[in-house]
User: Fold HTH arsR-type domain-containing protein from Flavobacterium sangjuense.
Amino acid sequence: MLLKKNNVLNTLVTSKTRVRLLVKFFINVANKGYLRGLAEEFDESTNSIRKELNNLSEAGYLNKVTIQNRISYNANTQHPLFETLQKLVFHYLGLPTIIEMIVERMGIVEQIYIIGDYARGIDSGTIEVIIVGPQLDKQYLNQLEGKIEKEIERKVRFIATSNYKDKGLLIYEAKLLS
Assistant:
């Protein structure tokens, strides 16, 4: 059974700021942030961001590093709950549903990438997805967008290609048989 986004992280974590921070840092471990930048990005006060960053840091979920009088935060990949938190964030965003529906119905899918805002950890409402594979059915993808949007309660934009070498967050890669 696939859970809708509102039933995953929002019921466990009641602070919207904390949910946004978890998405920011656990969708892509390369994401980093600092207090003022996160306050601007989230359009929230530095006090509310500071409080949540301190809570997450003290719990060990985030690393806190001082670089030239500026404190930078990123996900602590060594924390025992790192993988669990990352899976929760992925489910919150509906990524397993996207992968499942594409792979089941699109034929040969080699890779699936998330690009744009979500790859940077910004929960903007539109997930941009690159699907890599030979002979992808682009018409079917257009139909699939609406089905997935209803399922995950977010807008989805698919881009199908036979080759992709740009930046993005790899969320699926087919296992090649040797």
Residues 138-152 form the longest helix (15 residues). The chain has two domains: 5-82, 94-173.
